[in-house]
Hints:
Helices cover 32% and strands 14% of the residues. It is α+β, with helices and mostly antiparallel strands.
Amino acid sequence: MTAKSSPKEAIADRLAEAxxxxxxxxxxxxxxxxxxxxxxxxxxxxxxxxxxxxxEELWLVQTVGSREPLHGDLGRFYDAIExxxxxxxxxxxxxxxELRAYLAEVRERALDVLEEVDIGADAEDxxxxxxxxxxxxxxxxxxxxxxxxxxLQMVDGYELPAAVSELLGRYGPENSDTPPGETIPVAxxxxxxxxxxxxxxxxxxxxxxxxxxxxxxxxxxPVTNGEYAQFVEETGGEPPLYWExxxxxxxxxxxxxxxxxxPEAPVIHVSWHEADxxxxxxxKRLPSEHEWEAAARLGLGGTGQVWEWTxxxxxxxxxxxxxxxxxxxxxxxxxxxxxxxxGSWATHRDDLRPSFxxxxxxxxxxxxxxxxxxxxxxxx
Length: 380
Ligand SMILES: [Fe+2]
């Protein structure tokens, strides 16, 4: 046989890139910091790291490669549904050198299995077809990198690695191709929503279907810090997480630093309730997730800077089928969670797509979420 086929090499490279970012994020931290609980709503970083490796072992080594796990039934402590975040540091999870060794050993085994399997478009197993399970694993590590960054906001004196801090450039207003204050009109009609049948997407983005929308307009740019400060002054509302008063203005206090907020940058770290209140105060409303997606396909400024809260509950699309497991999306469907669209400065670029649906509890503020306002168009 000849050398690896190039799709496999591409997958191996992207697995390595994701792991490189994981290592870069934790590189400035010692073991004590990895094991510390910073917030009851966030896991200790040691749990995230073990979970990243265990999820990889479960899918790429045990499921795809039919190998036995390295540590028996350790995997049950890394099950995100079974183990609430507040309890994760009490579990007998791997730590320190053992944890690092587990990450490396699982990766080595996963790459061995990758050599053996057929990931072509005609692969019989839908998990392997077009490399689905590998795409899922890469996206999973990216998404945990973002969760780790939520926690790293709380670590005093933490310095973002250069490669990650470059992404903060995306957070600034200079990345918008449309000036603040502009709105985009969207005509009423039928719009295609969701991911196409081929190519990587999560189960909750499918099937693609048509949705009837009434005419509306949507802000070309997310709500800015300056606009949000005005809302806080006028209503006496809570400032966003990591804002503190200093003199007449506000400073941003993430990672224990005190930096003046940039008035033109999108506001970040607000809850759904706050986002909804802002939109009403501004005489507008949050867009539905369908409106957001239809507008994103026409071109929205400032996406990929902050996650944007929508008015929508996280529900199944008509004809939804869970794949590859119910616990990815299906168990979260209902009115407890609100959908966020777009992506933040901390989201890996590969995961930005108009159909991507993120979801969280409406009171959450530690996520990198802001908002964009919409308004219904009066008939005539
Ligand atoms: Fe996970």
